[in-house]
UniProtKB/TrEMBL annotation, chain A:
<dbReference type="GO" id="GO:1990229">
    <property type="term" value="C:iron-sulfur cluster assembly complex"/>
</dbReference>
<dbReference type="InterPro" id="IPR036065">
    <property type="entry name" value="BolA-like_sf"/>
</dbReference>
<dbReference type="InterPro" id="IPR050961">
    <property type="entry name" value="BolA/IbaG_stress_morph_reg"/>
</dbReference>
<dbReference type="InterPro" id="IPR002634">
    <property type="entry name" value="BolA"/>
</dbReference>
<protein>
    <submittedName>
        <fullName>BolA-like protein DDB_G0274169 isoform X1</fullName>
    </submittedName>
</protein>
<dbReference type="GO" id="GO:0005739">
    <property type="term" value="C:mitochondrion"/>
</dbReference>
<comment type="similarity">
    <text>Belongs to the BolA/IbaG family.</text>
</comment>
<dbReference type="Pfam" id="PF01722">
    <property type="entry name" value="BolA"/>
</dbReference>
From TrEMBL, chain B:
<keyword id="KW-0479">Metal-binding</keyword>
<dbReference type="InterPro" id="IPR002109">
    <property type="entry name" value="Glutaredoxin"/>
</dbReference>
<keyword id="KW-0408">Iron</keyword>
<dbReference type="GO" id="GO:0005759">
    <property type="term" value="C:mitochondrial matrix"/>
</dbReference>
<keyword id="KW-0001">2Fe-2S</keyword>
<dbReference type="InterPro" id="IPR004480">
    <property type="entry name" value="Monothiol_GRX-rel"/>
</dbReference>
<keyword id="KW-0676">Redox-active center</keyword>
<dbReference type="InterPro" id="IPR033658">
    <property type="entry name" value="GRX_PICOT-like"/>
</dbReference>
<dbReference type="GO" id="GO:0046872">
    <property type="term" value="F:metal ion binding"/>
</dbReference>
Length: 128, 144
């Protein structure tokens, strides 16, 4: 009887954990973008903005992103190479569901907390 | 449609085959990017861009009074894939100056804001009309 009680306790714990995980991970791509950029560029500032809501996609979609990355790794790299670096790191995401990726890549020196404007409005071409 | 094809392995496979067969040859694209001093690959046409990022590029080039070739990738799936491979760049729009890949919307925007675009255009013999406008309004103001 005791062991049955114990098993059911463990079982409910497992269920609880699974439930918790499921409720948190509704943005797997955003999380994966974040961890890849953090790991590889060790940014002093990193912001990932899901801009999918601005487009003709289902709710909670992860199709359009903007990333702001401030990293020492960008020192002496021209803009295009910084973008290529980010594109390369997020290759899998871009080949999968991510359709648009807007990149702001700066060195800590260049980064003053300037206001970042949202990306331009959709003009209907996506999903056609 | 996209969701459907992405999830179904048969569709995905078929899509890849189609994609493989219909990627525009790099030779053809090389000709396209060198056909004019400024060449843009975009979604929609300059008169009616179908993506905000493409629209931003069109507006910037318009401000500078640049004549350019525009190719609508939504009209041609093989071009859409081909250009991404050619420049090794995953997104549209893409801008070429003198046959050289410059970047996408973010980079154009930055070049425009920093004033570097005027110089880039000058290098290939295009005088940005923004210079004339600046001269008229603020003759003393520097270009940057």
């Amino acid at each position: 009887m005791k062991s049955l009680f114990k098993t059911s306790k463990i079982f409910s714990r497992v269920l609880f954990e699974a439930n918790r995980k499921m409720s948190i991970v509704n943005n797997p791509i955003e999380i994966s973008i974040k961890s890849k950029l953090e790991e590889n560029l060790r940014p002093s500032y990193l912001k990932i903005i899901n801009e999918s809501y601005m487009h003709n996609v289902p709710k909670n979609a992860e199709t359009h992103f903007k990333v702001i990355v401030v990293s020492d790794e960008f020192k002496d790299l021209p803009l295009i190479k910084r973008h290529r670096r980010v594109n390369e790191l997020l290759k899998t995401e871009l080949q999968g569901g991510v359709h648009a990726l807007s990149i702001i890549a700066k060195t800590p020196d260049q980064w003053k907390d300037e206001t970042i404007e949202p990306s331009p409005n959709c003009r209907g071409g996506f999903g056609k | 449609m996209n969701v459907l094809t992405r999830k179904n392995p048969i569709f995905t496979c078929a899509k890849n085959i189609i994609r493989f067969n219909s990627t525009k040859s790099q030779e053809v694209i090389k000709k396209l990017v060198k056909n004019n001093k400024v060449v843009v690959f975009m979604k929609g046409v300059p008169e009616q861009p179908q993506c905000g990022f493409s629209n931003a590029v069109v507006q910037i080039l318009r401000m500078h009074g640049v004549n350019y070739d525009a190719h609508n990738v939504l009209q041609d799936e093989s071009l859409r894939q081909g250009i991404k491979e050619y420049s090794n760049w995953p997104t549209i729009p893409q801008i070429f100056i003198n046959g050289e890949f410059i970047g996408g919307c973010d980079i154009m925007l930055q070049l425009h804001q920093s004033g570097d675009l005027i110089e880039e255009l000058e290098k290939v013999g295009i005088r940005s009309t923004l210079l004339d406008k600046k001269d008229e309004n603020n003759p003393k103001e520097s270009q940057k």
